[in-house]
Amino acid sequence: MPTMKRIAQIFLIACVMLVSSGPVYSQEQNQSTAETTSRDDLAKLLARLDQNPSIDRAYAAFQRGYYLTAFTFALKEAVGGDDHAQTLLAEIYANGLGIPRDISKAIDWYSLAAAQSNGHAQFSLGLMHSSGNGLEKDLAKAAEFFKLAADNGIAAAQHNLGIMYLTGQPLKRDVNQAVIWFEKAADQGDMDAQYALALIYKDGPQGFKDENRAFVFMFESAQAGHLDAQVELALMLFRGRGVEPDPRRASRWFIQAANSGHVIAQNRIARMYARGLGVPLNPVEAYKWHLIAQSAGYSDTWLDTFVSGLKPSAIEKSLQKSRDWLAWR
């Protein structure tokens, strides 16, 4: 969903103009010409903003949670044909924000906006077809809408299209096409697409394996907050895949993912504390993380054996630490 794009674009352009310069004559003449041009252009742009403020007000109200106000401002513009306003109304109807939920009306507004090549509306219709929410479940139709949205630069649609090519459902399996669409989404910072590329280059089909590239994409996805990527990155660092082995850095990523609730990371960091790999030997921390992983249903007989040799005082400390951690979740 676009948010405040017009205001942002106007002031971004204005700021660029304020620091731009025309042809160089003398420094004074050049500065005077640039300042006059900037003032004139800025005035024109602000005048354009004043001509149609309703949709911008609608987005501002929507962001602040004033959904009825957003609805009121957007409705007039949507009826007048503004595709952004139509998409905003569809979102409000689809989620029942401030008004009764009405999927039928949401579909109508999404469809009008999609017909004007609004990528966000096209993506939403693709999601509805893929899940069967409000529309008949039809993966082929979903793929059509994802393709339209992907062509309009919607990163999530590019990622979904890549998944469809990679899995062969409903599109014919084509890893090359999958990589093309994943890379388009990854270039926009989509962490799911970055993770998908990392997996393809790490363990993918023949002709695609490239552990150095896998590490780069895995790192980018992990940095963006993808938990599975953080665990995979830690494993690559620990095992030396695509990079020199580095248990110390691996432990940092395991701890970060473990604290975010990733059970595999919790198990791995427990083992590292138990063996003193990448972290100082710490039986109390080892058992703490083992208990936390166990609470999520993850078992490990090796750690069970390790714990059986701990002193009662260490066990009590671990129990208290695990209870404290779980209490703050």
In terms of topology, how is this protein built?
Elements: H1 5-19, H2 27-51, H3 54-63, H4 67-79, H5 83-95, H6 103-115, H7 119-131, H8 139-151, H9 155-167, H10 175-187, H11 191-203, H12 211-223, H13 227-239, H14 247-259, H15 263-275, H16 283-295, H17 301-307, H18 312-327
Helix pairs in contact: 1-2, 3-4, 4-5, 5-6, 6-7, 7-8, 8-9, 9-10, 10-11, 11-12, 12-13, 13-14, 14-15, 15-16, 16-18
Features:
single chain; 329 residues; mainly alpha; globular; disordered N terminus
Structural account:
With 329 residues, this protein is an all-alpha fold. Among the domains are: 51 residues, no CATH class; 56 residues, no CATH class; 84 residues, no CATH class. The chain has 18 helices and no strands. The chain is globular, with a radius of gyration of 27 Å.
